[in-house]
Amino acid sequence: MHVRPISPAALVEELADRIAATPAPARVRVALDGAPPARPGDLADALIDPLRVRGREVMRVSASDFLRPASLRFEFGRTEPDAFYDDWLDVGALAREVLDPLEPGGSGKVIPTLWDSVIDRATRAPYVTVPPGGVLIMDGALMLGRWLAFDLTVHLWLSPGALARRTPEDQRWTLPAYARYEDEAAPRDLADVVVRVDDPQHPAVIDR
Q1: Structural domain tally of the chain?
Q2: CATH number of 109's domain
Q3: CB contact at 8 A, 40 and 141
Q4: pLDDT above 90 for 208
């Protein structure tokens, strides 16, 4: 294993090059996986313009818009780590409405959002077509090891100490879920690209 320091800007360019190298007309499904303090959404947003410059249309989706209804998420309480790990993300909906239509020969029609967890109501978002050669970029947490059909997976890894330090007090109840994720899913072994982000301004790619 080799740890390779890289600047945030260079990381974006490296990932954009790798994604854009996929031959057209294949659609590319990219997961940026990491706990909220790792800022996977920021990296996802940063990739949009570089990919468009490289001639690839981009669809941005957040796994947080595919949570299950509150009645299911909070069945065992609002701060239950195992429920957070097992029951919050609507894996079936992500596969059915976003990832499977982008398979080779698929319709390309995806729903960008499904459920507004703040008001606990369906978003009723219309279908959007990802054209041939388009790129889906999805950010979220706890996504790997769930048999979701991604073409490239990037795991933004925080050491346990950094994750604990950077997790807000009102979210610290989630820490056991992330520890379980490390133990059971082993995202650093599953991901195509692993980036250590203990210091977000000084990331490092972990080359295997």
Answers
A1: 1
A2: 3.40.50.300
A3: yes
A4: no
